[in-house]
Amino acid sequence: MDELGLLNLWNKKRKHVIMAQVAPAVVLIAIMVLAAQGTFATADDSARYLALGVAAVTGFLAIVSQYAAIREAEALVQDLARVSNPTALTSKVASSRGLLSLTAIAIVGLGIAIFALVVWSVLG
């Protein structure tokens, strides 16, 4: 694959990570609104556990999807590092492996933290 093809693939991976956050964000907004209104305080346990289950599954699938895109992007930066006569953009992207690793750690860590907050807001 040539340099332009690799950079296009890089942009697709970035977009994939960003788009994978949309559904969980919508679920979290809904849970936040319901929690702020006190809906969970009077809801049956089954409704609370359903909300937690939906949040957990949506978040888990998003994390897996994002993590897979980051792993593929890590391989991509290795390919970009081997391009002969790279442009400044290619060199910059090729040097971002550390940032990708940090992003993977942050996605998992923040996902766990957010789910803990969801549990707290739903179960009280």
Question: Percent range for helical residues?
Answer: over 70%
- What is the number of strand segments? 0
Q: Supply the number of helical segments.
A: 6
Shape: elongated
Low-confidence stretches: none
- Mean pLDDT value: 93
Order of helices and strands: HHHHHH
Please report which band the strand proportion falls in: under 5%, 5-15%, 15-25%, 25-35%, 35-45% or over 45%: under 5%
Please specify the SSE layout and strand pairing.
Layout: H1 3-19, H2 22-36, H3 39-42, H4 45-81, H5 88-94, H6 97-123
Structural write-up:
The protein is mainly alpha-helical. It has a single domain, classed as Topoisomerase I, Chain A, domain 4, CATH 1.10.132. 86% of the residues lie in helices and 0% in strands. The chain contains six helices and no strands. Helix 1 (3-19) packs antiparallel against helix 4, helix 2 runs antiparallel to helix 4 (45-81) and helix 4 (45-81) runs antiparallel to helix 6. The longest helix is centred in the middle third of the chain and has 37 residues, at 45-81. The model has no long low-confidence stretch (mean pLDDT 93).
Observed structural traits:
124 residues, mainly alpha, Topoisomerase I, Chain A, domain 4, 6 helices, 0% strand
